[in-house]
User: What shape does this take?
Amino acid sequence: MDSPILLLEYTDEATKHMLENVRKRKQKFDDAKRWHYYSIYGTLFFAFIFFAYFYFTIAKFYSYSFFAMFSASVNDSVSVFLFFVTLGIYGAMNVLRQQKDKKEKEYQELRCEIVDRSKDLWKKEEQWNNRHHVFEVMKKKYDINLYHEKK
Assistant: This one.
């Protein structure tokens, strides 16, 4: 368990475990989001390289006929390689987007559950009055908003 969560006062062990789980899911979501953005930039980069290569080596010289352009591009191994690399990274980008969406949904569900169950998690009057300290720590340290359900 992370030390700021362990040091929280006015919180029982079960609540600390829930906060740790939401922290872990937030970290997984942030990692998935970062990899998804890397894949977007990679796809754009390789698409630019492919189209630039295609234009300067094939389209300029064979623009008089679509069949000649197609035939030249299929015979050029670099063009075929760049096309399939771009296509592969595009597919990876879509898979990473789905993973990112799934992890975001899991994180948001657990975060909303903590917000919904806050009356049960901080039952005692002293805990209820000081729960804002827990919310502030989660917001400042981990960028997790437990004040309300909206993103």
Notes: The first helix runs from residue 3 to 6.
